[in-house]
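Journal club prep — side note

Before the paper discussion, L.F. wants everyone to see what a predicted structure for a comparable chain looks like in token form. Sequence:
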Amino acid sequence: MSEVFQWVIGVAAVVACLAVVGQFAIFAAIYRALMEAQKAGKEAGAKIGPLVERIGPLVERVGPVVERIDSLLTTTGKILEENGPRISNITAESLLIVKAARQHADRIGELIDETNDRAKARIAQLDESVGHTVEQVEHAGDVVKSAVLKPVREANGIVAGVKAALNTYAQGGNRSPARATQDEEMFI
């Protein structure tokens, strides 16, 4: 998993836990308010006895609704009481998961930094080795070049000398001073 994905999952788990805890608090507040309202309603009902007699038929209709609401609130209260420890456990476990994810992310970051440093050092070594090898190849090329060209130059000199000798022999020994100078310049 990528580091960003782990963070997103951790944050989502924490947000979900906070939402459940918030819902628990809201339901508890509603339950308490309704219980207080029911208690206040009973007290008000006792004080307003004559009015209740007049509104009796209306109250009879509202009675089942109140009973349903009371049973709903009772059920909600029980659910919240039963799930309170679970919500606490989920929150605690989510925090542990987030801490573990953070520790793993830190370790991975350290490993990446260490690997990066090693790679840079190795690249520097390779660069130095390649530079040294290129210098050696250039030096070897220069040595081979001079080793090959020296005999070629000597052979060219010998061929030029033989050619001049043959030219002199072919002319029968008649050489003018201008011709001799030209031949010497070509030989040099």
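L.F.'s comment for the group: The chain has two domains: 3-135, 141-187. Keep this in mind when we get to the figures.
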